[in-house]
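User: I'm writing a tutorial on reading structure tokens. Could you give me a worked example: one chain, its sequence, then its tokens, then a sentence or two explaining what the tokens reveal?
Assistant: Sure. Here is the example chain.
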Amino acid sequence: MEQLWHNVSDKEKEEIKKQAKELLANFSRKLEKIKTKEEHFSSGSGMREEGGGWESDDDFRNTMLANAPLVDDGAVVAEKGGWK
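And here are its predicted structure tokens:
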């Protein structure tokens, strides 16, 4: 069985960079082919309508809260950019 992790040689690094650039170039070419009309919504007042939010799957919510570094009363406590 091939190793799952190993030190990457300089030759392998260059090959990885080459493949990544090729993937990005191919992706960019495909994005250029997409034709869509750009639209913006304006309510006229500059304010959005209040709503009830969305309901999330209970399994997702439980997994998020289990993985959060700090939870208070069922809510994730985090500073911007602090949870990486």
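What the tokens reveal: The radius of gyration is 23 Å. The chain is about 40% helix and 5% strand.
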